[in-house]
User: Which sequence fits this backbone?
């Protein structure tokens, strides 16, 4: 089963993706994590993407589509994929539809803009695994360290308040039209669309998402 998680920056897509993938044996496709890894390796894609990401802008569609295609062709997932942060534009959604990745469910995690800034400004992450923490809402066992590896946690470059506001503006302009796009597909096909209240606690959101996936 292939699933898309949709929602604004800071909605909790990465947080929920980790738990859902563990629970259902899905492979996560997080374009944000792929791009951060490419930046860390100073690859061509990473160098190109960084200038967009630092400003909170979307990386050009073709760069993202090629990167995801390479990932999908390089392996297979028996259980399916969990798409986190992709697609983010209608062009990306159409590219996905031609890629033999049939989407069974779309889960929209809905969180009001006013909650986003405090969530993102308290976020810390483990770069290698993509595991996400929050200083208050999801604190690591040892401050500043990843629970599993003990590695140092880092703060993302694009988690500064000014950039967060830009990311939210780009989300509303370029990505939120996908909500109507997938609702429309759901009304004419077997695809199922769910809207989950992402302002509840991490555990409650997780429970609600898993019940949609049961
Ligand atoms: P990406 O990394 O995908 O960032 P994003 O979509 O902006 O989402 P975030 O990672 O900020 O948030 P999230 O929803 O995963 O929330 P999280 O679980 O971390 O993309 C980064 C950039 O890459 C983009 O700006 C763009 O430039 C580029 N890019 C990526 N994909 C692209 C694409 N397809 N096309 C073009 N460009 C692309 O949670 C946030 C915080 O809140 C954490 O601290 C967490 O602990 C906490 N939290 C989570 N849930 C809760 C809860 N229920 N209650 C309280 N706290 C919570």
Assistant:
């Amino acid at each position: 089963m292939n699933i898309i998680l949709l929602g604004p920056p800071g909605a909790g897509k990465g947080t929920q993706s980790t738990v859902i993938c563990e629970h259902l044996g899905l492979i996560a496709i997080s374009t944000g994590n792929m791009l951060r890894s490419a930046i860390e390796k100073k690859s061509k894609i990473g160098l190109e993407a960084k200038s967009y990401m630092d400003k909170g802008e979307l990386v050009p569609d073709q760069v993202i589509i090629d990167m995801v295609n390479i990932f999908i062709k390089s392996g297979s997932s028996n259980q399916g994929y969990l798409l986190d942060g992709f697609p983010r534009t209608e062009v990306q959604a159409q590219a996905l539809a031609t890629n033999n990745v049939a989407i069974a469910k779309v889960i929209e995690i809905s969180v009001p803009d006013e909650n986003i800034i405090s969530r993102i400004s308290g976020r810390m992450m483990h770069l290698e695994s993509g595991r996400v923490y929050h200083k208050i809402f999801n604190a690591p066992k040892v401050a500043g360290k990843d629970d599993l590896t003990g590695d140092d946690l880092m703060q993302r470059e694009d988690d500064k308040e000014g950039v967060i506001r830009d990311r939210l503006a780009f989300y509303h302009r370029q990505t939120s039209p996908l909500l109507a796009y997938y609702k429309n597909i759901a009304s004419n096909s077997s695809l199922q669309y769910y809207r989950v209240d992402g302002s509840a606690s991490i555990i409650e959101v997780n429970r609600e998402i898993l019940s949609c996936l049961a």
In short: Residues 31 and 86 are 6 Å apart (CA to CA). The radius of gyration is 16 Å. The chain has nine helices and seven strands. The beta strands are 2-6, 27-30, 81-84, 103-110, 123-125, 132-134, 192-197.
